[in-house]
């Protein structure tokens, strides 16, 4: 009987750690979706294929499109869901973080930037206000609340994050 209790306790610990791991993963996915929305004001996966300005698309995901586009009185080579600069993508490629520009690689790039900007632990814990305000994310994604090009309030970001988490838990 004593041995049976130990087994139950172990399986309970495994379930708890599995839930924590799943929660961290869902929080990261929800935050990535929040960044994509902040950058593009869209919730669809088509944002992975957009060039700067959001009106032109690319189809070749073997590499960053590296096309300078003029919009809003300026020009830029940013592309994809997270508006990644060519030079930043090249750096990540040299470091072996990614090898192409597929949606999965763009997500991997964004997670790498969340970590290097000091926000990943806050996001894993679901503390997005801290992630945005106490890290350097506003320098990476200027459309996040409080950043120089943002039209989003922190309350909207928190609401959207909660909505995205709920959607991800239900799948």
Question: Can you give a write-up of this model?
Answer:
The chain is mostly helical and 171 residues long. It is built from seven helices and two strands. It has helices at 2-40, 86-94, 103-116, 120-124, 128-133, 137-140, 154-170; strands at 69-71, 74-76. The chain has a two-stranded antiparallel ribbon with strand order 1-2. β1 and β2 (74-76) form a beta hairpin. α1 (2-40) crosses α7 (154-170). The longest helix has 39 residues, at 2-40. 28% of the residues are buried. Residues 1-9 have low confidence and may be disordered.
Alpha plus pi helix count: 7
What form results from the Cα inertia axes? globular
Strand order of the largest sheet: 1-2
Structural class: mainly alpha
User: Radius of gyration from the CA trace?
Assistant: 19 Å
Terminal-residue CA separation: 38 Å
How large is the share of residues in beta strands? under 5%
Counted beta strands: 2
Q: Tell me the major beta sheet.
A: 2 strands, antiparallel
**On the 0-100 scale, what is the average pLDDT?**
90
**What share of residues is helical?**
40-55%
Question: How are helices and strands ordered from N to C?
Answer: HEEHHHHHH
As residue ranges, the low-confidence spans are 1-9
Could you name the key traits of this structure?
disordered N terminus; 4% strand; mainly alpha; 171 residues; globular; single chain
